[in-house]
């Protein structure tokens, strides 16, 4: 295949920033005819990131409501030069809300998500509460926006699920390749940062790092074992019979739902690593037909929200620091699977910010689709 000049710049051995395209953004910020927005879980890491993303993308809104538990009610929250009072989250919080961005945990979502939808709000939920619920769209805007095309503001309440962070990061990299050669099997190993377990876990990593460097014993609180200078199996619940934890099974089940391919073969190993923010994933793919490294890079370069760092000469590939606070998912180490005799296998390495694209940004992009 003859590559274009731009594609040649992205061939193996060359690091190049590519494809910073985003889902279309409605430019407006605060406006009288914008939707009425509520953020549920405003004091958490993702809740705070919602504010950052809304501001960065100039998301239009006519009013914004900050919601949290009773213990946080009354606190002040600054946003775009205005001081808001955090309100207690109750069943009556959604009577004047068009879009509710939820990030307060699965139990809260299960209890109040349907309440909000019944009140007419469209809930974009960041928990796992509704991801596998039949009839609830599970959306990555760059991947399957058509699955939520029937949901619009003013046409009744609804719930839309935000996928797990590891699933989002993986499918941003793998979907463009699937569209070229169709993925038959995917093997994923994740290296997941403290951000995935929330602000308290991030602080635990900071404190343990200080303690260990000072010669003091680490004091595990969030995790059952030392986190600093260590790594361990992901801390989600383990299925003792299967030997897979919940995080690993989310990758399997969510990918099948998002792609609409119930039979695609997926296996995963998820590990928590002492990185502050941004997850990494090593992915091995088997395809239905031949796919070259050049074809893969061409497809990745054309996909919105993906950037490539693939400099073999200088051993320069994506790192969590490259992805930290960035919108895009970074892909590199694109190479032939040499364990196969055919040309139907590739390996790649992927990094994405768990709080950004893995949570808040994806949810806000879903909200943007509601405005079209």
Automatic annotation (TrEMBL):
Stored InterPro entries: Asp_semialdehyde_DH (IPR012080), Asp_semialdehyde_DH_beta (IPR005986), NAD(P)-bd_dom_sf (IPR036291), Semialdehyde_DH_NAD-bd (IPR000534), Semialdhyde_DH_dimer_dom (IPR012280)
Positions annotated as active site in the UniProt record: 165, 279
The protein's annotated pathway: Amino-acid biosynthesis; L-methionine biosynthesis via de novo pathway; L-homoserine from L-aspartate: step 2/3; Amino-acid biosynthesis; L-threonine biosynthesis; L-threonine from L-aspartate: step 2/5
UniProt GO BP: diaminopimelate biosynthetic process; isoleucine biosynthetic process; lysine biosynthetic process via diaminopimelate; methionine biosynthetic process; threonine biosynthetic process
NADP is among the record's keywords: yes
Enzyme Commission number(s) of this protein: 1.2.1.11
Any GO MF annotation of the entry: aspartate-semialdehyde dehydrogenase activity
CDD domains: ASADH_C_bac_euk_like (cd18131), VcASADH2_like_N (cd02316)
Keywords: Amino-acid biosynthesis, Diaminopimelate biosynthesis, Lysine biosynthesis, Methionine biosynthesis, NADP, Oxidoreductase, Threonine biosynthesis
Catalysed reactions, semicolon-separated: L-aspartate 4-semialdehyde + phosphate + NADP(+) = 4-phospho-L-aspartate + NADPH + H(+)
Coiled coil: none
Domain Semialdehyde dehydrogenase NAD-binding: 36-151
Family classification: Belongs to the aspartate-semialdehyde dehydrogenase family.
NCBIfam families, sorted: asd_B, PRK14874.1
Assembly information from the UniProt record: Homodimer.
Record protein name field: aspartate-semialdehyde dehydrogenase
Species of origin: Edaphochlamys debaryana
